[in-house]
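Hi C.,

You asked whether I'd gotten around to modeling the 198-residue construct. I have! Everything is below, sequence then structure, no commentary in between.
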Amino acid sequence: MAETQFISHSQVVPPAMVPRRGIGLFGAVGIVVGILAAALTGGLVVLERSLAASADDAKGRLVELRRELEIDSINAAKTLQNRIEIAQQILNGHVYGSQALNFVESNILDGVRVISFAYADKKVSLDLLAPGYLVYAQQIKYFRTVDEIEKGFNFPPPELNERGEVSFSIDLSLTSSFIHDKPSVDNTVANDTGGFEF
């Protein structure tokens, strides 16, 4: 015969429950720290992007301002520089032609006559006539002491004419500072207005 299974009618007691433990204090602190770290990281990323965008905007505005400033100020400075250079060229090229005449008038000794005079490019060419060799030597010696003459001038040998006069030629290079200086004015001549008042 077949065996039947026995079904107990006794009350079933659930198994003893094991008390559940929580995640504990360290676990809770770890979760809070993790959430805070994630929030802080997200905030830093957002802040970094915001600051990068602000920096890019500021750089763009700075480039535009610099371009505007450079255009106005650089153009003004270039214009001024060009004017200064032109004025400097004009001043450097300004020569007082009368300086050569003033030089000859002031530096020819008494008794020496000027036969011919030429002036070009800072060079004065003179044909002179001295009453004798002594005056000729004095004139040459004097030319060597004049500051307005560039040192090291040469001259051909003198010639003696039938009247005993010494004719000689000389080429003198005047210094740039002398030629570019404004000629001095003799006040006795300049102030003589012939009785007229201005």
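If it helps when you're writing up: The mean pLDDT is 78.

Thanks,
B.
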